[in-house]
Amino acid sequence: MSDAAPFSSVAIVGLGLIGSSVARGVRRYMPGVRIAAYDADPAVRDTARRLGLADNIPDTAAEAVADAALVILCVPVGAMGAAARDLAGALAPHALVTDVGGSKESVLAALRAALPDALIVPGHPVAGTEHSGPEAGFATLFRGRWCILTPDEGTPDAPVAALRAFWEALGANVELMTPRHHDRVLAVTSHVPHLIAYAIVGTASDLEQVTESEVIKFSAGGFRDFTRIAASDPVMWRDVFLNNREAVLEILQRLTEDVTMLQRAIRWGDGDALFDLFTRTRAIRRSIIAEGQDDAAVDFGRRHDDSA
Ligand SMILES: NC(=O)c1ccc[n+]([C@@H]2O[C@H](COP(=O)([O-])OP(=O)(O)OC[C@H]3O[C@@H](n4cnc5c(N)ncnc54)[C@H](O)[C@@H]3O)[C@@H](O)[C@H]2O)c1
Ligand SMILES: O=C(O)C(=O)C[C@]1(C(=O)O)C=C[C@@H](O)C=C1
């Protein structure tokens, strides 16, 4: 185990974009930490073995987690319960169980129900791409990104500190919040934006007056950016919406009111209302960049820079 590594052995369950990025990150930033991994899909296990993502990739989840000090569930949020049930009775004593799911309240409930005696500290690295699968991951995915942990109030400090140190070793900045607050924040910053992208790309492809070839031909700029988001994994996003229903519906209601306001401004030629809103939104974009959080370009560089 390297000096900095907070866990001597980790088991990763689910070897898609996020699981394979964690595996690559552990190899690069915590050399010496033993990695075991499992994926329910045999083809993914084969690919992961070929890529050398872990020291051991057995054919059952129970074997993968048997000796792990940290178990990280990296499966779609709707599969968390099933993945956790596969581990029941197989966890090492004192193992810490965490996850990377994009919604937290329902995931925590599913993990608790499946593993009532386990020490669980849920997590969510707010970093990703529109790609999925074991070949899409890269070691630097979490660098400079936030990772949100949502421990219970009663959780002892030591495991939370160890998990914080783990994500920091992968390059992330860590913040703690309640699962409920997480779900409300992410509904605004991630979930509804994805829904809007899915909706506009679906609308464009349904338009009768504009042919599909025109949509493709003229998809520069704005629409093209939406198509990147709308190419994100259908299973992952179906599960996120079904598991963060309440917060997403609340934000959608607010959005609908704001869109109606814009409709009215356009109809009545209220240029000031449009100008004021667009000025405010431009300022938000600029403050995100000033905080170093915009990095389509940086990310592109990272992915191409990443030899792992
Ligand atoms: N993609 C992103 O941008 C992103 C970012 C942050 C967090 N997340 C979260 O990470 C999780 C994984 O997302 P991803 O993008 O890596 O998805 P992915 O589709 O790339 O990988 C998911 C993997 O989980 C496996 N799997 C499904 N059910 C399983 C089970 N019961 N047991 C074992 N393996 C199982 C699948 O075979 C697949 O290989 C999701 O919960 C998602 O919300 C995703
Ligand atoms: O950059 C992207 O492609 C993402 O969609 C990443 C993104 C996000 O919305 O910011 C997507 C889902 C997550 O759970 C966390 C991060």
From TrEMBL:
Pfam families xref list: PDH_C, PDH_N
Top-tier EC class: oxidoreductase
InterPro entries on file: 6-PGluconate_DH-like_C_sf (IPR008927), NAD(P)-bd_dom_sf (IPR036291), PDH_C (IPR046825), PDH_N (IPR046826), Preph/Arog_dehydrog (IPR050812), Prephen_DH (IPR003099)
Reactions it catalyzes: prephenate + NAD(+) = 3-(4-hydroxyphenyl)pyruvate + CO2 + NADH
Superkingdom field: Bacteria
Domain Prephenate/arogenate dehydrogenase span(s) in chain numbering: 8-296
EC number: 1.3.1.12
One of the protein's GO biological processes: tyrosine biosynthetic process
GO molecular-function term, one example from the UniProt record: prephenate dehydrogenase (NAD+) activity
Metabolic or biological pathway: Amino-acid biosynthesis; L-tyrosine biosynthesis; (4-hydroxyphenyl)pyruvate from prephenate (NAD(+) route): step 1/1
Record-linked PROSITE patterns: PDH_ADH
Keywords of the record: Amino-acid biosynthesis, Aromatic amino acid biosynthesis, NAD, Oxidoreductase, Tyrosine biosynthesis
Extent of the signal sequence: none
Membership in a protein family: Belongs to the prephenate/arogenate dehydrogenase family.
Name of the molecule in the record: prephenate dehydrogenase
Native source organism of the sequence: Sphingomonas metalli
